Amino acid sequence: MTTVDEVLRYLDGLDYPATRDEIVQEAEREGAPNEVLKALRGMPPVDYRNKDEVVRSAKTDIAQETPAEKAAKARDKKHQRVAEYLRDTT
């Protein structure tokens, strides 16, 4: 599976709003590998207003937390007793 950074690398020249098909065509023009195209084709066929919406919809890997981020969350009382995947990262 591809990452968010790999997806965004091929969408720099895209003007928004854009449809899923326009996003896939832009990635193809930029020479995106099959993994990136597969992630973009898996998005719902709607209009996307910006890169954030594309990132939320594209089928990408979730970035791993660094040990420092995990330690900071462990010290933060509001994150205790909440499953790691449900924790707010901000």
UniProtKB/TrEMBL annotation:
Residue spans with biased composition (Basic and acidic residues)? Answer: 81-90
Domain of life (superkingdom):
Bacteria
| Disordered, as annotated region | 65-90
One Pfam annotation reads DUF2795
Name the UniProt record assigns to this protein: DUF2795 domain-containing protein
